[in-house]
Description:
With 228 residues, the protein is α/β, with parallel strands linked by helices. It contains 5 helices and 11 strands; from the N terminus they run βαβββαβαβαββββαβ. The protein has helices spanning 16-25, 69-79, 105-115, 135-149, 211-216, and strands spanning 3-8, 29-36, 55-59, 62-65, 86-93, 120-125, 158-164, 174-176, 188-191, 194-197, 220-226. Helix 1 crosses helix 4 (135-149) and helix 2 packs parallel to helix 3 (105-115).
Amino acid sequence: MARNILVTNDDGIGAEGIETLFALASQFGNVVLVAPAEPQSGCSHVITAHQAVRFEQARAGQFVAHGTPADCVRLALLNLPQQFDLVLSGINHGGNLGADIFCSGTVAAAREARLHGIPSVALSHYRAPSRDFDWQRAAELVTQVLHKILDQPLQAGEYWNVNLPHHPDVQPELIECPVDPHPHPLVYEPDELGWKYAGIYHERPRLPESDLEVCFAGHVAISRLRTH
């Protein structure tokens, strides 16, 4: 029996990453898209609790929630008739590696799905400085990843976090690896309004064989996360 798949993201409806994911996900089941009306990058696991969230159809098989990625998952489960077997969140325009998982709306959508007992995958694409995304190549890599992981057993509360590399000179391998434990560096610069973060993403400290090291070396980092 074909899976019923919910696709969402934090970059908003119409982002190239979610359009890429929506197209390729049809290889794995029946797909419905529910995305935020506006970009929600970095919103973490915010739930809109003190105001109404509009939920409306954008086109056939695609819906918009005027809220966060976690709202999208919750409202999809509430309003749509399907019983979803899988939630795919992404493909995020930028990495969600190491401590990023605590800030990411992309990861939060996958986490929200898993809290409701639905297997889920957060998918992100690290971007190297001054390089454009190759979404066709991203689709090929995500397809390989999903074939690899979707039938693997998950423990209670486990879900997947996947980061694609952005390295032109390496043939990517699919590597399961732990999440790097380092916090974001405490690098700020003063300006007239206060302190502005000045950390450089690709220069973050990282442990050997962690998701940061794997992805920055040009490989696909696949990590198991837990809701608890």
